[in-house]
Specification:
The structure holds 2 protein chains of 2 kinds. By secondary structure, chain A is mostly helical. Chain A has helices at about 1-5, 10-35, 50-75, 110-135, 140-160, 165-180, 190-195, 195-220, 225-230, 235-255, 260-285, 295-315, 320-345, 350-385, 405-420, 425-440, 440-470, 485-500, 505-520, 520-530; strands at about 80-85, 90, 105-110, 390, 390-395. Chain B has helices at about 15-40, 45-50, 60-75, 80-100, and strands at about 5, 10-15. Classes of the chains: A mainly alpha, B mainly alpha.
Chain lengths: ~525, ~100
């Protein structure tokens, strides 16, 4: 009732959060209604929802979501953090640790979160288009429901202001993601097979919750803006750090199981990106460069290097396109984690920040932004190559460029961006990282450059084999297999080309403001004490 | 195309990098042209090509990487409790990094 009375003055970020959440429940309600109707029918229950209506609803939600997230991003300008509080007095923008109001919900909107939500909205829209065009696995009620549940969960992560709200939205996105991979599992045999999966996910979520509880027990708040002004590193805080970071880092690295559905893979990439967003918030916005965390950068660099080596081993001699895409994504994740390690190391002193810290953070955020469109493009291409034909899977035929020219060019562009080949947009991002890593040790720079070169060579070899290799017998019957993904690919292609031709705009409008809002704790303090935007 | 990339922290000369890229591409093309001219239209001379096997086997890196993946990595990937193990190992690594006194300057 209270929520309805507050609707006329509802802030835009709240509205953009409520929309996918409400929409996620709508197909779920339809689904439950259908299940109830078919509960006691022993003969085949034929109650089906109109598919055209479902597609229209799905498309409408994605478009409105895109528009709302864009509006929130535009309203944020270039800096500042805004807090939106739902208290007994309605919506307000002021939060203080000793506030007498009964706070029911707090949302935080800053450039980083707003930009991330918009980017996610764009990619979700593209994935939605691909899901609706997929004839091999037509869209249905449960698929729409799980897509929207994942979307709602991730949207919530980008606007969350506290650790418990992070937990809540991670849980929602986990429900959506589990449903996307395995559907609704009811058979005992399937449940038994998935026991380890569910235990691992439950363990990750409980660890995150435990970290939040430790901080709440010590500081009586879990709001990141408030906590960042109070936190002092002791034993409890160290445990909380590990408990909060580890599960999300794991979810980022191991974002999905082997899956050959492009739209589902894209949603898992979105989820992986959102997991890293939470890690950024905890590491940079909540803890910051506290004394006692000096070894963490080295650990991140070590983990990143392990991922890079693993990805090179996995890409070598790999023929399955989906596994190849997974290995190349692992390479991007390795680079991101190395850049995170260097970034943390560069925030410990003003000199380090000036020399390499800020450059490394810019590189990290740029790589993080590029991760989603590039992995989406890879998913569309590689899942198309996995399609079944009369003579086996599509990729086994080789020499496919004449039939899939858009996919071929997009594949090459994606790989060039991943490897940081100049003049593509991946290069400015990696160039900052090479410069920063040189301050840690020149050996690291050499290794990173060698790894980028190796992945480029392996990928070009793979593409040339698939696209320009000798066609197999029966491949003459293949006609335009990438028709269903042409629109999503062209949109992604447009984004990558635009950011390649206009890197200044890409950095100025997306990267630099995000870095500013991620690091600047002063604006968060201002948001608590005064409310509203501050520079 | 923008000639410089300014991010608030760094200014990066795009046109200079473009010139370097074009120069490198030019050198590469020139080398290819010279080699092709010397070998009679082929990148590899006919004498060397005779020794080459058209359906060549995978190189040293690929063979060993594939062996390492299949024999060492794959059994771990197949473990049903790999995810729990990974989370536990990651957690232990963080705990060691957070609580260990060794190596702190």
């Amino acid at each position: 009732m209270f929520l309805f009375s507050s609707l006329p003055v509802i802030p835009l970020p709240v509205l953009s959060l409520l929309l996918p959440m409400a929409a996620a429940f709508l197909p779920l309600i339809f689904y439950i209604y259908r299940r109830i109707r078919c509960w006691h029918s022993y003969e085949n229950c034929t109650y089906e929802i109109n598919l055209r209506f479902l597609k229209l609803l799905f498309l409408l939600v994605l478009i409105v979501n895109l528009f709302l997230t864009w509006s929130v991003w535009m309203s944020m300008g270039t800096g500042g953090t805004e807090l939106f509080l739902l208290s007994s007095g309605g919506w307000s923008k002021t939060l203080s640790p000793g506030s007498p109001m009964l706070i029911k919900a707090v949302l935080q909107a800053d450039v980083f979160g707003a930009m991330s939500a918009f980017l996610m909205g764009c990619i979700a829209f593209i994935a939605g288009l691909a899901a609706m065009a997929d004839r091999n696995d037509p869209i249905n009620l449960s698929k729409v429901s799980f897509f929207l549940t994942t979307l709602a969960g991730i949207q919530g992560i980008f606007y969350s202001a506290g650790i418990f709200s992070f937990f809540f939205f991670i849980l929602i996105s986990q429900i959506g993601a589990s449903g996307l991979i395995y559907g609704i599992v009811t058979a005992k045999k399937d449940l038994k097979e998935l026991t380890w999966y569910y235990i691992s996910r439950a363990m990750a979520l409980l660890m995150f919750l435990a970290g939040g509880v430790i901080l709440y027990y010590n500081y009586k708040t879990v709001n990141i803006a408030v906590l960042s002004t109070m936190i002092k590193l002791g034993t409890n805080e160290k445990f909380a750090y590990a408990l909060l970071v580890v599960p999300l880092l794991f979810m980022f690295i191991k974002s999905s199981s082997y899956i050959a559905d492009s739209s589902k893979r894209v949603f898992f990439a979105i989820r992986a990106q959102a997991s890293l967003f939470v890690v950024f918030r905890i590491i940079f916005s909540l803890y910051g460069p506290l004394q006692g965390l000096e070894k963490i950068p080295n650990l991140f660099i070590l983990l990143g290097l392990i991922l890079l080596v693993s990805s090179l081993v996995l890409t070598a001699k790999e023929e399955d396109p989906v596994k190849f895409a997974g290995a190349v994504e692992l390479f991007m994740k390795g680079f991101l984690i190395v850049s995170m390690g260097i970034s943390i190391s560069g925030t410990y002193s003003a000199q380090a920040a000036a020399e390499y810290g800020l450059g490394a953070i810019e590189s990290m955020v740029a790589l993080w932004i590029l991760f989603l469109p590039v992995s989406a493009a890879l998913s569309f291409i590689c899942c198309t190559l996995k399609q079944e034909t009369n003579n086996g899977e599509l990729w086994t035929h080789h020499g496919l460029f004449n039939e899939m020219p858009i996919s071929g060019i997009a594949f090459l562009l994606a790989v060039s961006v991943i490897a940081g080949l100049p003049p593509f947009v991946g290069f400015p991002a990696k160039q900052f990282l090479y410069r920063s890593s040189n301050y840690i040790t020149p050996l690291l720079t050499i290794f990173l450059m060698a790894a980028a070169l190796a992945v480029l060579l392996i990928s070009v070899r793979y593409i040339s084999k698939i696209m320009f290799g000798k066609p197999s017998e029966g491949s003459e019957n293949i006609r335009n297999k990438d028709v269903s993904v042409i629109v999503p690919l062209l949109i992604l292609f447009g984004f990558l080309v635009y950011s390649t031709v206009m890197p200044s705009l890409f950095f100025d409008s997306m990267v630099s403001p995000s870095v500013y809002s991620l690091l600047n704790k002063g604006q968060m303090v201002n948001a608590i004490n005064q409310g509203g935007t501050s520079e | 195309m923008m000639s410089t990339l300014e991010t608030g922290y760094f200014i990066w000369n795009l046109s200079a990098w473009l010139k370097i890229s074009l120069f490198s591409a030019g050198v590469f093309c020139l080398l290819t042209f010279i080699i092709k001219k010397k070998t009679g239209g082929s990148l590899v001379s006919s004498r060397t090509a005779r020794k080459c096997i058209t359906n060549h086997e995978d190189n040293f890196f690929q063979q060993n990487a594939s062996l390492f993946r299949n024999r060492i990595m794959q059994p771990w990937f197949d473990l049903p409790f790999l995810h729990i193990l990974s989370i536990t190992v990651l957690f232990l690594l963080f705990i060691v990094a957070l609580f260990s006194k060794n190596g702190v300057e």
